Amino acid sequence: MNNTQTTLRRFTLGACALALGLGMLQTQADDGALYGPKAPKGSAFVRAYNASSAELDVSVGQTQLKQISPLGSSDFKFLPAGSYQAQVGNAQMAVDLEAARYYTLVSQTGAEPRLVEEPPFTSRQKALLRVQNLTDSTLSLKTADGKTAVVADVKPDGRGDREINPVKVGLALFEGERKVADLKPVTLERGEVVSLFVTGGQGKLSPVWVKRPIDG
Hints:
The chain is of the alpha+beta class.
């Protein structure tokens, strides 16, 4: 092999290696855009749900959850487990966040903000329906005709879960045998948690499906 061929071969191999390296970097960048930064071990996860009628800003320590629309939620953000001062709109509250646990800060008009735990869901085959009952009534999630209970008898300030197959469902909220509200149909994906947050009281209940927002 002459010097010209040797030089050309080295140049070709170097170009291939550079292209491969750039490809790997691009793949890593795409993965980062898709999944976001990986939470360090010992992190807690927190989001905010805005049950009020005005836009909401929330902070937990230095973590900011900004411009949350009425009846909307932020995505979860991670931060080191520990004790924090939370600012929820104009209200302040102390919160204790444990490692590897998920929480939702709930803001309601005319009530103090609440910290609600959201146990993680690890199935990749099923979806999870969750009822977060922040009212003074015992409530059930049923089929619209009331014949089949999906998540039954969730006590005041309690939580109820039900794993189901991925599907688009139309359900209703009941207090005993009385229908409180027909709910908007919700589409459930594999591995997804969809929470029904029910706020209010004294017969004026506000049930809202809360899903993780989609960027873009």
